[in-house]
């Protein structure tokens, strides 16, 4: 695919007034329109100096510890460009300043993509790291990523795929789950109960119309006390209840450990010890640990993952035409890294 090579091409490009969404298309990313302008200027200058055939080796490292994600997307971006690429595998942990990726080839071919590559790795690794921390707090309990509503839809699938890479057991965003080779997870929102008018009636309709493999997990905080509503659902043969979901809003104190303990105890006393407790709403690792100890069985984590800070990534040229090179403050030549695996 033709990529932008001169500042004149940038000047000639204009955004259509009929454009409905502001997110970049795949074609715009691949042609270099989401890069920083200084890479286009560099490319044009090197071409005019006759140095566009210069071969370099560049290394990428993160500024803090994390879980690595995004390399599959970078691989797809760079394939068929005549490059050699080594990378940590997705899901691997890395430490600050450790080399996570190495790219070898003509600078003119991949320099235009530095902005894109670093952005992919920074965001994906940040999301994966947050998911890892949430799952670590949950232990053997399930964690689902419910973060799509907190980010722009153009990156929601990337975020939820990264969450699965980081350790989340599933994701609610359809495209995000499919990109992670999973089926999307989730049942219904409060809207169903509000429109139907009764929790048991709505849950019975779900059980009637949804396929058998769809989990029977119902919200219990729409109309009545959470414990009362849970017992009503459990007692109805039309519901087929497997778990109840607590999503009590902050206006009513949120989901507390005492609420989880009370619900667990009363479900057990009524003979429903098989019914699990799923918790969502403003969860972070600390709250996950506390609610796990209180008896929660699974968690839906949204903003903690989606709002995770990107892990700043830096790309350094370490060789030029086979000779060690680096800017001041960096050590010229390739960095030893036995964990890198060739992906291109």
Describe this structure in words.
With 344 residues, the protein is an alpha/beta fold. Among the domains are: 1-51, no CATH class; 126-306, Aldolase class I (TIM Barrel, Alpha-Beta Barrel), CATH 3.20.20. The chain contains 14 helices and 14 strands. The protein has helices at 7-12, 26-30, 37-48, 71-78, 107-110, 114-138, 156-166, 174-179, 190-196, 199-209, 226-235, 257-269, 285-294, 303-306, and strands spanning 55-62, 66-67, 84-87, 93-94, 99-106, 142-145, 170-171, 217-219, 243-246, 276-280, 298-301, 313-320, 323-324, 341-342. The strands form three sheets. The protein has a six-stranded antiparallel sheet. Strands 7-6-11-10-9-8 form a six-stranded parallel sheet. It has a two-stranded antiparallel ribbon with strand order 2-4. α9 packs across α10, α11 (226-235) runs parallel beside α12 (257-269) and α12 runs parallel beside α13 (285-294). The model has no long low-confidence stretch (mean pLDDT 97).
Please summarize what this structure is:
This protein has 344 residues and is an alpha/beta fold.
Q: Which structural class matches the secondary elements? A: alpha/beta
Report the β-strand fraction as a percent range.
Answer: 15-25%
Number of strands: 14
| Biggest sheet features | 6 strands, antiparallel
Strands ordered across the widest β-sheet: 13-12-1-5-3-14
**And the CATH topology of the domain at 126-306?**
TIM Barrel
- Output the number of helix runs: 14
Helix-strand layout with pairing:
Layout: H1 7-12, H2 26-30, H3 37-48, E1 55-62, E2 66-67, H4 71-78, E3 84-87, E4 93-94, E5 99-106, H5 107-110, H6 114-138, E6 142-145, H7 156-166, E7 170-171, H8 174-179, H9 190-196, H10 199-209, E8 217-219, H11 226-235, E9 243-246, H12 257-269, E10 276-280, H13 285-294, E11 298-301, H14 303-306, E12 313-320, E13 323-324, E14 341-342
Parallel strand pairs: 6-7, 6-11, 8-9, 9-10, 10-11
Antiparallel strand pairs: 1-5, 1-12, 2-4, 3-5, 3-14, 12-13
Helix pairs in contact: 6-7, 6-13, 9-10, 11-12, 12-13
């Amino acid at each position: 695919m033709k990529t932008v090579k001169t500042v004149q091409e940038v000047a000639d490009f204009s955004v259509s007034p009929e454009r409905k969404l502001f997110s970049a298309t795949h074609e715009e990313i691949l042609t270099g329109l989401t890069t920083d302008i200084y890479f286009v200027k560099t490319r044009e200058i090197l071409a005019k100096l006759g140095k566009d055939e210069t071969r370099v080796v560049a290394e990428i490292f993160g500024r803090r510890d994390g879980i690595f994600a995004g390399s599959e997307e970078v691989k797809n971006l760079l394939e068929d460009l005549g490059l050699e690429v080594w990378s940590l595998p997705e899901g691997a942990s890395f430490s600050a300043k450790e080399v996570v990726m190495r790219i070898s080839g003509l600078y003119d071919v991949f320099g235009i993509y530095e902005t894109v590559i670093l952005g992919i790795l920074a965001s994906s690794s940040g999301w994966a790291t947050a998911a890892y921390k949430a799952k670590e707090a949950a232990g053997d309990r399930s964690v689902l990523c419910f973060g799509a509503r907190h980010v722009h839809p153009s990156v929601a699938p990337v975020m939820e795929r990264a969450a699965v890479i980081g350790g989340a057991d599933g994701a609610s965003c359809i495209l995000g789950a499919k990109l992670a080779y999973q089926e999307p997870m989730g049942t219904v929102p409060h809207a169903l109960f509000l429109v139907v008018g009764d929790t048991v009636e709505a849950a019975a309709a779900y059980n009637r119309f949804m396929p058998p493999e769809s989990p029977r997990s119902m919200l219990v905080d729409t109309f009545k006390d959470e414990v009362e509503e849970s017992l009503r659902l459990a007692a109805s043969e039309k519901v087929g209840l497997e778990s109840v979901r607590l999503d009590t809003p902050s206006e009513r104190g949120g989901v507390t450990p005492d609420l989880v303990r009370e619900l667990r105890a009363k479900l057990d006393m009524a003979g429903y010890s098989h019914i699990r407790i799923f918790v969502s709403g403003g969860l972070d690792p600390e709250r996950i640990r506390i609610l796990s100890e209180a008896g929660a069985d699974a968690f839906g984590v949204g903003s903690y993952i989606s709002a995770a800070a990107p892990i700043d990534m830096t790309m350094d040229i370490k060789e030029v035409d086979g000779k060690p090179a680096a800017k001041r403050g960096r050590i010229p030549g390739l960095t030893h890294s036995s964990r890198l695996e060739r992906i291109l």
